[in-house]
Amino acid sequence: MKTEALLERLHVIDSEYRRLEHAAALLQWDQETYLPRDAVEERAEQLGLLEGIAHERIVSPEVGKLLSELGSTSENPRGDESLPALERDFLRILRRNYDRQIKLPPDFVRSSARAEGLSQAAWIAARSNDDFTAFVPHLAEMVSISRKKAEYWGAGGAVYDALLDIYEPGITAREIEGLFEPLKLRLKTLLNRIGSVPQIHAPFLSEAYDCGAQHTFSMYLLDYLGFDQNRGRLDTSAHPFTTTLGADDVRITTRFIENNVVSSIFSTIHEMGHAFYEMGFPAELRGTSLGEGVSMGIHESQSRLWENVIGRSASFWQGLYPEFRQRFSGRLKAVSMEDFVRGINRVEPSLIRIEADEVTYSLHIILRFELEQQLFSGALSPEDLPKTWNARMRDLLGTEPQTNADGVLQDVHWSMGAFGYFPSYALGNLYGLQFWRKLNADIPHAEAAIAQGEFAGIREWLRDTLYVWGSRLEPAELLFKVCGEKLSVDPFAEYLERKYSDIYGF
Amino acid sequence: MKTEALLERLHVIDSEYRRLEHAAALLQWDQETYLPRDAVEERAEQLGLLEGIAHERIVSPEVGKLLSELGSTSENPRGDESLPALERDFLRILRRNYDRQIKLPPDFVRSSARAEGLSQAAWIAARSNDDFTAFVPHLAEMVSISRKKAEYWGAGGAVYDALLDIYEPGITAREIEGLFEPLKLRLKTLLNRIGSVPQIHAPFLSEAYDCGAQHTFSMYLLDYLGFDQNRGRLDTSAHPFTTTLGADDVRITTRFIENNVVSSIFSTIHEMGHAFYEMGFPAELRGTSLGEGVSMGIHESQSRLWENVIGRSASFWQGLYPEFRQRFSGRLKAVSMEDFVRGINRVEPSLIRIEADEVTYSLHIILRFELEQQLFSGALSPEDLPKTWNARMRDLLGTEPQTNADGVLQDVHWSMGAFGYFPSYALGNLYGLQFWRKLNADIPHAEAAIAQGEFAGIREWLRDTLYVWGSRLEPAELLFKVCGEKLSVDPFAEYLERKYSDIYGF
């Protein structure tokens, strides 16, 4: 076959693979939103089958052969130098996925999928019974499976790095440590200063707000921020998420809590940030494996940028608060915009990661990163996790959970064997502020635009500067391409220090 | 391989086929309910891919080999006599589907799918422009494709019978004619009598009723009739339908029209009737190709039984009207239950099939059946359809459309090449009343139960008597098994004659 024909065939396989993945994503979306209760088991079987078929196709011997014939090897994933750059990037992604999958024996894949299912079920029970001991054997099994996986991939001693690479390609634990150590210090210092001045009280935030009106307001937010409802939708689920069912079908979910009106607002904005990314890939990457986010960290940079940097800013509420206050005038009549903005930016060390404020959030992540490293270096065994967890909480956040359900059992990730995932959340904060600085340099009036409810300029800058690359680059390459710098703590730390010294007045 | 192993393998293939079909059904359901506007094309590609994969699996050479090895041939589809009856029925269904598919050359399947797509698009345009001429070449192509299909199946001269067999296995045009001729006479006679007495006026039916309240009432109906919401759901779509996404996931849709409050009620009940059937197959047929309705006609017997025989009866509203009236007291304060029941049973010859009442509905079907036969006998050519349509409308219903959009172009079926489908609607009326008679013989107090809002007995009788067979039997076999008789016009005609002489008082 000629090169063109080889590439064309590979693109056909890839696009069919993507279609199957999108179909599977619909099955999952439906499971979280509309699936009747008794259909859960059948749905799992349908999903398993569909994902199996998709997997078979993208790691078929034919794909291996096509990649080789195009010069793509594990050592030189981008293939023949004579190929167009776009195709070489395409080969790199396909080779990476191929290598990752093909090195895992089918028996291992099957048995780990089964073990993950059991482990997740055990975690749910353990959390609800606050019974960590019952979860220990599953956790140990998840660690051992991840270790084995890294072994198959030929990670040698660098097991944890191999796991990190799944979520944040190219990064190492050492690099993250080099970022998290200074970040930890600056966050703790900031937290101490905040703790030393009068605290913010915002009782109006925990009053009851009609969930129907919250829903209507979230729909209003979609339009306000420029979410294209012809290419996506908002639904309700127990845990907010974003999912891509096609280049023109990106769906987000939120949830409405009567006594926490801002929960739905910020989770809607957060997921919208993810969705803007997924909706923003250029036409040439449409329907291909390059039309995806670069990494979890870069993805999280987008959701957190919109949620926190934009969504929790005074400028943002300058434009939005009048509308919001009018809709909830019964509750907010006496609440000034300034009080509202102070309320939604209240800092308070707490036990639960997903409820944490901007300042403490990354400390929750750093804790998990430290423990993951110890689990994989062998310095910490699963049964000792609660003790270490609680001690580190005390040290980092000055508070300690009374139950494991509020401590080490709070997150689903480890029960699924998703070790190495947590750091992306904090890395997202770092990436986000580096991008934000660059954006503000390129668009000097960004803040004024936000205050006027004008987001097109920001959306377009992100699309034309960031999203345009799809997953063609590694995260570090993308960051350098956009900002001309390496990943760094300063922009994020300085942003927090400035913002919170303003808010708390020190 | 031993027989057990052959059967087991065949069941694995079949259950994976069913899962893929259910996944495809979700994609379709979503397309009709929640899909963002711009994602329509992508969805078509996803669906095409998924259905292609499902199709490949169920007509693979392996399936052909397994069927043969189990003794199933086109002549003896049920296979070796030594096999258990259930397995023999299973083989029969698989052989039928296999033969139907395998005899069509892949090129023919592809090109007809494409032609059907174009034809449907052309029909949409033709209907909206009231331009039958533009649709003629497509219609001719659809007739020719259907003819060719029957030829591949070896139908010989009996082309139309081969098409009928897709929807109503085992029936012939001659048999249908033997039923429709007397039915036509009795319906026309009844219609004339109704026309000779004072008509019913029910202006309250076309007043405005809040769509939100209509929705809430449809949800109430689900519970009232015993629809298990843990195994299904109700959503909204432009055209109401029922779809099966799994043994425990049967979904129905309805639509809410402000100035037609009963439209949503009767379409909800109609689709619920389909859903009861799909939800009622026994455990042993779960997830297999035997866990399906017998035929379109039998399916329609269930939806029409619930919608018309039960849902439009005075007994039904005796139980439900107080609740309904209370919910819409602004509109219905002055409307007695008797007036309401008369209103929803008003008979009036009209142009549009899907808006027809119980008496005229079957006449719309008979007209289509007559024209389809003429199209396939060659007595009528596509371009002459409108003239014949209008003349037959005048003769059968005493009215004539002013436009083809309200006439020959009103239904989608022919544009998809679904010739032979229409008769099932009227056959459903006949089956339905035969089943209903038997049910009332077995449950003498059925009507009283309905008046008390008690439907469990009726649901259970249908489940244990009808649904229990899945698609193990042919329609005629099932009818005989249940009622001990052949398909006949009398029960349906007598039911109408009694009901409408009561309502119109003659």
From TrEMBL, chains A, B:
Key words of the record: Carboxypeptidase, Hydrolase, Metal-binding, Metalloprotease, Protease, Zinc
Cofactor note: Binds 1 zinc ion per subunit.
Catalytic reactions of this protein: Release of a C-terminal amino acid with broad specificity, except for -Pro
Co-factor(s): Zn(2+)
Annotated SUPFAM superfamilies: Metalloproteases ('zincins'), catalytic domain (SSF55486)
Pfam families: Peptidase_M32 (PF02074)
EC number: 3.4.17.19
Keyword Zinc: yes
Active-site residues (renumbered): 271
Residues that, per the record, bind Zn(2+): 270, 274, 300
Record-level Gene Ontology MF annotations: metal ion binding; metallocarboxypeptidase activity
Record-level GO BP terms: proteolysis
Described purpose of this protein according to its UniProt entry: Broad specificity carboxypetidase that releases amino acids sequentially from the C-terminus, including neutral, aromatic, polar and basic residues.
Protein family (similarity comment): Belongs to the peptidase M32 family.
Protein name in UniProt: Metal-dependent carboxypeptidase
Organism: Breznakiella homolactica
